[in-house]
Amino acid sequence: MKKSLVFWVEEYFYNPTLLQKLISLLLLPLSWLYCFLMWLRFKSKTPENFNVKVISVGNLSVGGSGKTPLVTALALKYENVAIVLRGYGRESQGLHVIKDKQNILCDVSVSGDEAMIYARKVQNAIVIVSEDRKKGIRKAKEMGAEIVFLDDAYSKHDIKKLDLLIEVDSENSSCLPSGPFRERLWLGKEAVVLKDGVDFKRVVVVKDRCDKMSLLTAIARPQRLDKYLPEVLSKNYFEDHHSFSKEELEDILSKDSSDSLLVTYKDFVKVESFGLPLSLLDLDVEVDAKVFEIIGNYIAKTD
Q: Is residue 189 domain-shared with residue 245, that is, in the same domain?
């Protein structure tokens, strides 16, 4: 039931049927109210300076946009860096240090999938999950971080930061619940808008490729993967942040008689312990030099 609802909502926002377009139109008054309340919230906030450089990477709409590989590529370029995120899909609550400068300190059930990707891929970074981003920033600073990357924190208007926003194409430009937008780029809010394919480009490598592979993925809007896929026997989509069971994976391997399951890194960190044959669709990004110039100017600026 949950899986069907999630996919219905993704279709409603990004590839609506005629009925869904009608529902969206009927919900417009609620969207106007929601957007107005978000504007009032923005106007009521005063940014707090943490005396550390804070850089947020996010997007204005719901669903995936490529934040994780972009944050990874950016954070790899700097020393004394931390990554702070909410940690969607984790079984834990509160603040947890997932990784200090040397070691991963917990498993994926505590960290959530995205935080574990950072812990594995950004070996020079401190990784912290916390629903309260301010607590996360303070902890990162206490641990020696001089630059803090926030994953998906545009809406944290009470934090002084550089906002990088990934532009997401959508035919529906309305706010929730009529459309996919959580907020607007408010007048008076400084942000740098980045476009996929212009300001950063995706680089995809298939590791441990097999002749017969079945795609398994639990990311938002999984159809985004289609243009990067090799030939696969089947595409098996689960809701974003889904916690897999070993039996689910074994059923797919058996049904398709496949040699391996093709997974993204986000899925890999959750299923590698099952000991089943896996191929990795490893997605990284190459960032244009002008983005690092923007960040460099921000870091060099004295408050």
A: no
β-sheet with 260-264: strand ranges across: 200-207, 278-287, 260-264, 213-217, 235-237
Nearest to 261 by CA among 202, 208, 203: 208
- The boundaries of the domain holding residue 230 are 202-285
CB 192 within 8 A of CB 163: yes
Q: What's the pTM value of the predicted model, to 2 decimals? A: 0.94
pLDDT tens sequence across 180-212: 999 999 998 999 999 999 999 999 999 999 999
Q: Sort residue 264 into left (φ over 0), alpha (ψ -120 to 50) or beta.
A: beta
Within this chain, do residues 207 and 265 fall inside the same structural domain, yes or no? yes
Instruction: With respect to residue 175, please indicate whether it lies within any of the assigned structural domains.
Output: yes
Q: CATH number of the domain that 112 lies in?
A: 3.40.50
| Beta-ladder partners of 217 | 237
